[in-house]
Design goal:
Blueprint: H1 5-15, H2 23-26, E1 32-39, E2 43-50, E3 65-67, E4 71-75, E5 83-89, E6 92-99, E7 113-117
Antiparallel strand pairs: 1-2, 2-6, 3-5, 4-7, 5-6
Length: about 120
Amino acid sequence: MKPSSFELDVLHAILEPQRLKYPLLYAQIPHLIVTKRELTGVGGYTYFSFDPTTIPPKTDSSSEQIITSNKMAETDSPPSGLGFALDVTAGRINFLEFFTFGDEQWDGSIDKYKIVDI
């Protein structure tokens, strides 16, 4: 399945400001499909792979990192919003992690959001 608008906006929020530093990762965004979504109660994970119907972009297989951002998602629920980070494994976007602040619970639904600077 295709990533949601929210997931795409978060990917762009993380990688767009660092596009020159991570051009190969930024180029992967249009080729991503969601393989699994997992909720933890206080956050969640969205796992990705490349769409098999497209030609996969070039990757740097030596790249292993967690990429963060100085942004967050303001949401109605959870009221304090969501933070996020991007996991890169073997040069490929592996998963997005979403997390609440404090002990706020999150059921995984996003109705309205705004990506803002922290």
